[in-house]
Design brief:
about 80 residues; two-stranded antiparallel sheet; five-stranded antiparallel β-sheet; mainly beta
Length: about 80
Amino acid sequence: MNEDIQFIEWTNVVEWGKIFCPMLDMEVMTYYPSGQPAYDSYTAIIVGEDGETFYYRFDQDEGRWDEDAYWVDIEVEEDV
């Protein structure tokens, strides 16, 4: 398990549940947008080694992860 990974929590979401994420090699909590059906769930935003931010998507209909990262353009504060 990679315990060095830093996460940023979403706002306005509902917890779907924990799913093993092969790209991170660990079980992670997944989320879906509040007020919408849970067709897909998402990891929390991940802060990469170089400060890049992204997340992974789990397709609930297909029952599998999309292995592509989805990039998020946000500024990360040093204490995250």
